[in-house]
Amino acid sequence: MSDFRDNFGGTPLALLYERFGDSVKYTPQGGAEKTITARWSPYSISEDEHIDGRFIAEGGILRVKIADVPNPLPDDEVEIESVKYIVDEIMELTSIQAALQLKRTSAVEKSKTNYRMEKG
pTM (2 decimals)? Predict the structure, then answer.
């Protein structure tokens, strides 16, 4: 492992985020917004909605370093490329990183509206 660090200048996890990470804004509940580097894997792309020629993901998995987000919680807010999401679920939590399932804010509101309409 020391050869890897000597040759590439850091830990494998740090390099993974540095090389393949995305800049996102993360706002924990009751906390201040901060910009972090995280790995974003969108899914459930809506072909009907797009911004500046980009299709918008309804949700996805965001991997964050625990050093950047020490206590991720459901309903924390995340902004990726000007699109707002909330943490829906903590999928995985280790001592070095967390995998967070995100839902686009408007998708959450749409879901709540549909639920209210079904319940009458």
Answer: 0.71
| CATH architecture entry for 23-119 | Beta Barrel (2.40)
Alpha-carbon distance of 113 to 82, in angstroms, equals 23
pLDDT digits (tens, 9 = 90+) for 75-109: 999 999 888 999 999 999 988 899 999 998 875 55
Full DSSP string of 38-82? EEEEEEEEEEEEEETTEEEEEEEEEEEETTT-SS--TT-EEEETT
Q: Residue 63's closest CA among 84, 33, 42?
A: 42
* In the chain, domain spans: 23-119
At 86-95, the pLDDT tens digits run 999 999 998 8
